[in-house]
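Translate sequence into structure tokens.
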Amino acid sequence: MLISSHKFCEIFDTIRSKKYLIYVFSSIDCDSICATKIFTILCKESGISYVLFPVRGYFDLKKKLKKIRELIIEQEIPLG
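Result follows.
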């Protein structure tokens, strides 16, 4: 997803101020790993909590999202 730097800062500030938990899904290719590393460093330095899920493709992502939704509904993991 492409967003402007201004919009990214706005979203990032909202996440930081509301103490949301972020679910990060990253492909296992080199570019995704590098982008995820940069993003998680930003999160750590800003005190933002995140959970990282490696995915192998769309179907793996879909499967993990389904499982997370079930856990949220069962209140086993927090929304934020």
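Note: The mean pLDDT is 87.
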